[in-house]
């Protein structure tokens, strides 16, 4: 869940962003609430973060912002927080692949345009960003970042010229951009939340006294003691102004395509997304695994932290006792750099150690959320065997990754996916496991309690939106 | 386990140190192994850390060291690690109370004396340090730190004048110092491990190819792929030299007094201390709680991370299902500073969130390792109730704290201990809990599988060594 | 010349930028030369700096850049410099007023547009930036910074749509922008230097083997061992491509308006600007002062560092011996923060001390380059008297400041200018001086050896270009 | 004067320390005055600095200190200064050779001993430190630093056992230590200043209202608006207590040996040392040079900053006009690291540029304070010639360096001294100069207005105290 260990990273997936917005109609300061909210969303992005605030009662369009590379508690401190005066604001946490990791690309994007200032925070990936950038450049646009948010901002700015208000401009812009976006836009007097019609990424509404909150996940509402109001619907635009909240659902479609992997891995288990408890989804994933891939074993363990809930589900269904198989070192931090002279020690050992007492002499069911390249899984199986496990039965609470994701996560290209090039049997052998079972793709809908519309393209290859034609990476490197 | 949140801190206990030493008889570099070992011991001290190394084949007594305030991954980087050339070395992680938290007090202590150089790493607290400092000062000694290690170093240096080798000097020094110490001493050609006769703090021996390792806990041996050889016995001095390992047990006594709280809280569950699995100790603590303080309930949850294993033990014994009641935010980091403008948000929420799905509508048994002042426990009980728990039955896997510790932990003075001033019934009410049960002090020996000698002074008031006469805090503040 | 001391700052003027560009036609690396060049231009801006480089033989339009707040030796280090591979590049040092001091506003501005990448470094201030931003915003432009360079970049990008090459686009853009600009533009295959038709700010051309260099001042050529070729003429565009250097002078005008204060204060004395030695200009200023405002005195001293050369000129003309009246503490650094508890010590004393031996019992002529608010001058006069000076005759090597500057310096608004509100006699009294003489505005042309066209608007109020209609400060604050 | 440029460093000499102490009898805070005082002494040491303060009315012996690597304005900030409460304190700036440059060696040394706390700041070098350390170690002493101050502290601590007060202990200690030391000792209730009997290093007394000040140079008194009272005499001990200042001169000797190079180079020209103006000393050095080594020339220039005053003296005596031959870049800072890819640019160019206008076509007399290895001088001569100087006549305001210094400066060993291995004629040729003249050693006494006792061992080889028998560098490397 974090890019802790260089070796380790290669086998972990990353969400690309989390967003948080708040508008206190009664005029209270909001920077510290955004700070707390971003802490709760830190798992969605550990590379950079930022906060932009404004005062709806102050001079129009004065935005104060602070952004930087690093974790929330590295970028913010009492001094810079206390400068962020305002009763409306938006925050962002970000992960990105290395190339575009730079301070220019931090969010929220803060800008001036014809109607004053805007601040944007965006979670997701547009699939037609290159085409849109190309089109825009032929009208004289310049791009100072390599993030999609800049493309969205341009469209809002241009639409705003011919629309009566910013929410209409957002709507018109949404009719041009394609792909995944959960978006929070702060204008001088309004806070707008919008979600793409497929609803790839989550976005929820909360309320605390006179303040409305928008956030990627409900866990961020809990962090600021806000009550959950409802999810922003896929395709919906909500506009929070001095008079309260308004909704435009005219872009909503029949059947959205929520990212199923949010439930399996990305989101925090204490969050509820589109009415579904992430915790329950994972319990269910574990139960299905136990049904489809039962095995004789003495203990079920989860690979921390993400495998633990599914392991409990497996245990509940199979009757095999749940155990704590691993100790995770929580002090490793965001980055781990191997010493130059190091040869022997494996970096996976820095992060995890097996509880010998739990697995020694046992037949172990090991639950993990996914296998990307397979390197980490192989090491963990080996650690379990070294600790005395008689058998290791690997169960994965998702189907095999076969296709890249273009909607806001970093599932790598096919040739790096172990499941793309190998059968389950071959993978099992490569891991050194005694058996291997993946979640059956046919049963994914059970994770979200009925097929209310989800995206499983990374497993099935069925993309709800056409993939981008070219690589969407920018061509300069700051 | 970490001093994360300022409010939170007040209700957590801290170990005061972890030590790690290694001597590669074949001449290999050891700095990176010490670095990995300190990572695994980080839970024993997050305030400062350091490494000192030497080359037993190089010019006699050249020690290279690097120390600093902060976590292992904050203080060390590839550059400073690559400067630490040598095949023998010692490392240290440290926690201290605020007053003496300074770079002068970081360890290992590196010094020159009559026979060249010494480096010392020390876990524990001497009870006669003030008297010894006083005595030493009357012979013209000067003290540049406020750590006991300096007192130990002086005694070794003075004894060395009349002893044939450094291990004899260590032994003679041990006859003068009183209290708790697990000590690693690096001389130009030897690595020495020593443990006070009561064995308050742990110290283990490991081996990897031609290298001997000394460490506070076995989890550090795992981290460097060393095999566990045995524990250093209470009172034993082991000397690792070019010819291998030698032992002097002449200071060993009949019945040691190992800190029982290492098993309950301080040590990592994957460690084995003096032949006992910490994990098993905690499972047993949970089982005893279930026997002594049973209750009708629907789910058992542990306060993460330290309450989880005992919660499993309670579940195993009681048959009440184990559940994951909380999500812990692992990104909060070592320090958390509340924003100045913050009024509403409780900092405990930054670190923990309740899994509503698990506790809503349930009668909950909540297991924690201890209650110090009670403030954190009260908040967590309230969070559970807010999340819908019908009842909250608090079970504590240790007896009530009634007395301060003088042997290397920071159990505060009596007047701050909730149990010192209140009955169990009163505490239960203060916590807002529906029932409260502590581990029975009489059954503590079961945690370590028979009374092989342990210290429970913080619970019982039976101090194996006389407490210090004065406060041992130094009187200058760097 | 540097914003050293908070109190002190208020009475110093600041240049707003320095630029440096280089294109090595033979393909050699240029980052280190830019680094050395920026060091030599550091006096033109100490707030932030940046370097952007590209490889004309590599994939088209890949730009690597590094920017940051602080001095050149604070922002750059061997690691980040060694990542800046390329044989063409541009660098920038910047000063700005506090409000817009942020990392977003650092230069060079690096961007993508229809033809790939551009990097811009700009010295000066546009006077029609607000109007242009307004116009652009009505075509949907968004602004992520508050620097004029972004406006220039937009115009180049838009003009590029209808022009055959980037230099034509620069030219067309120049026909729209008004005010002061010395500009270096790096396109994938060309380095372009341009200077506004009035030539407010300097720009010179140098050459070293196969490399062409553009820089604000010749002292930067010296720093990289390049030979001075010639000045870029006011209004000229020079284009350095694979085939060498080309010039377009079609925008040149009859009579430019070079900033006379570059000679008096901003530029380094070892630089030659538009054929005139800055050193000679200052010597001449001192001589004119001696002619116009002679006095009986024993010694002439300059306020370091900027008053020293004019003091020599005064001495040469008057025959009164030149002396070193002050010691300047060169260790104070860029920023000086007064301790909270400080009451007594004046911060001016941190930076300067009087050489008693030189002034005690003497009638002193004290030469400074200008008086802005008068606070610093008053303190320095007092220091001289305290050190025993019998008389202090202040001579200022520029006319009185009466009007703000809109062309790239920070001469403050009228109400803060001591000369705007007081007669020379009154100022003399306020300073505690025995006499006061300013340089006569009529004789300014002698500083540059004949009236080849200069701007003295800050003294005379004769603006060569209409001042901006509104305040040009941006309205958001990052 | 600062270790700016790696190449450059090799040819500059360094003072090894500056000290500052203050005791406000009226109880006022002193930390900010120490801060200002250290700023004024920064030229005496740029590697590390520190402040220790105490409250003479507070609990006895509570010392607060803050030390660190770097310049005064890098180590101190309003936060850490505001924690340094107290009305008595001592500060230190330090330079050292690379090996022992570490945070352990920063001063003031703060320690506990039999009578409470002591803080020591020391300028100079003991010549018998190795023997004393050896002796001490045979009584069981341990050494945690490699600085002489620790040896002095041990002796004071030991003597204190048998003396009625700390000043007597200092005196007894002084009878054992040999070499150069200007020392400030802070005990809980007294501030003591002591100077070795030869008075190698300066130490002055100042007064401001109710506060007494001790400092290395008078320029530090000016910085805190204190009036100069008198110099501490060589061999004198002054004790400032609640009742004022007392003096013990019983260790004073007939003829001291003040370091003559303080006047020539180390001290600031605005300081007065032992009754002599440093400025006047340098003017005199220039005059003597003009008398002894006259030449036909058009202009006299000084190598900044240290050569400027002597250049004025030369001009005064010879009648050849004084000119500003060089521009020094004051933004280079303390450290300059050459970029890895740099090949061409000479680092001396970063720091200095020639004013062509001044030297072109002229016969130039170039005054510098000394030549150590000759590398820098050679480059500067070359720069002058490249700038068009017809002739360059080098005049050095000190005699040739022939011997190392053991009394607190870093004159290197003989084999690195150009004058040790070459005749003046040879050196002249190596420098590429047209003539070369050194100050005549016979006339050194004129610099300090009569032979009141000075040390010129680095020139003459006449050491007032026997040089140390062994190298005094410590043998461990932190």
TrEMBL record, chains A, B, C, D:
GO BP term (any one): 'de novo' IMP biosynthetic process
Domain of life: Bacteria
GO MF, any single term: amidophosphoribosyltransferase activity
InterPro entries per the UniProt record, alphabetical: GATase_2_dom, Ntn_hydrolases_N, PRTase-like, PRTase_dom, PurF, PurF_N
Reaction(s) catalysed (UniProt annotation): 5-phospho-beta-D-ribosylamine + L-glutamate + diphosphate = 5-phospho-alpha-D-ribose 1-diphosphate + L-glutamine + H2O
Gene3D superfamilies for this protein: 3.40.50.2020, Glutamine Phosphoribosylpyrophosphate, subunit 1, domain 1
Pathway: Purine metabolism; IMP biosynthesis via de novo pathway; N(1)-(5-phospho-D-ribosyl)glycinamide from 5-phospho-alpha-D-ribose 1-diphosphate: step 1/2
EC number, as in UniProt: 2.4.2.14
Keywords: 4Fe-4S, Glutamine amidotransferase, Glycosyltransferase, Iron, Iron-sulfur, Magnesium, Metal-binding, Purine biosynthesis, Transferase
Residues that, per the record, bind [4Fe-4S] cluster: 259, 405, 455, 458
Protein name in UniProt: Amidophosphoribosyltransferase
Provenance organism: Anaeromicropila populeti
């Amino acid at each position: 869940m974090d890019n802790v260990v260089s070796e380790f990273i290669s086998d972990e997936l990353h969400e690309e962003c989390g967003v948080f917005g708040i508008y206190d109609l009664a005029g209270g300061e909001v920077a510290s609430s955004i700070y707390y909210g971003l802490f709760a969303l830190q798992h969605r992005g550990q590379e950079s973060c930022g906060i932009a605030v404004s005062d709806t009662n102050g001079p129009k369009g004065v935005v104060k912002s602070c952004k930087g590379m690093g974790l929330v508690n590295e970028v913010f401190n009492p001094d810079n927080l206390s400068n962020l005066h305002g009763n409306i604001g938006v925050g962002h946490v970000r992960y990105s692949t290395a190339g575009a990791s730079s301070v220019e690309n931090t969010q929220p994007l803060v800008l001036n345009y014809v109607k004053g200032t805007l601040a944007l925070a965006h979670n997701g990936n547009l699939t037609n960003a290159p085409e849109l950038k190309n089109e825009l450049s032929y009208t004289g646009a310049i791009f100072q970042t390599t993030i999609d948010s800049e493309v969205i901002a341009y469209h809002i700015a241009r639409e705003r010229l011919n629309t009566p208000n910013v929410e209409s401009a957002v709507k018109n812009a949404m009719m041009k951009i394609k792909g995944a976006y959960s978006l929070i836009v702060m204008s001088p007097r309004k806070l707008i939340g919008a979600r793409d019609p497929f609803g790839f990424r989550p976005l929820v509404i909360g309320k605390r006294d006179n303040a409305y909150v928008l956030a990627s996940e409900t866990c961020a509402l809990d962090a600021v003691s806000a009550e959950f109001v409802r999810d922003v619907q896929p395709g919906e635009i909500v506009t929070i102004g001095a008079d309260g909240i308004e909704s435009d659902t005219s872009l909503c479609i029949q059947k959205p395509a929520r990212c199923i992997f949010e439930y399996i891995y990305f989101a925090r288990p204490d969050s509820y997304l589109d009415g579904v408890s992430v915790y329950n989804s994972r319990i269910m994933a574990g139960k299905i695994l136990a049904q489809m891939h039962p095995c004789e074993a003495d203990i079920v363990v989860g690979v921390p932290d993400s495998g633990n809930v599914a392991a409990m589900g497996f245990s509940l269904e199979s009757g095999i006792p749940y155990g704590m198989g691993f100790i995770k070192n929580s002090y490793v931090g965001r980055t781990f750099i191997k010493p130059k002279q190091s040869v022997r020690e494996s970096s996976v050992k820095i992060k995890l150690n097996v509880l010998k007492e739990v697995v020694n002499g046992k037949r172990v069911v090991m639950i993990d959320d996914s296998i990307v390249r397979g390197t980490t899984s192989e090491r963990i199986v080996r650690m379990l065997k070294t600790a005395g496990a008689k058998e290791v039965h690997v169960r994965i609470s998702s189907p095999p990754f076969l296709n890249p994701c273009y909607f806001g996560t970093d599932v790598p290209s096919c040739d790096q996916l172990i499941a793309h090039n190998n059968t389950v049997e071959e993978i099992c052998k490569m891991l050194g496991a005694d058996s291997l079972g993946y979640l059956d793709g046919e049963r994914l809908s059970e994770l979200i309690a009925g097929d209310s519309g989800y995206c499983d393209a990374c497993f099935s290859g069925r993309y709800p939106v056409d993939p981008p034609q070219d690589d969407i990476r920018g061509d300069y490197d700051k």
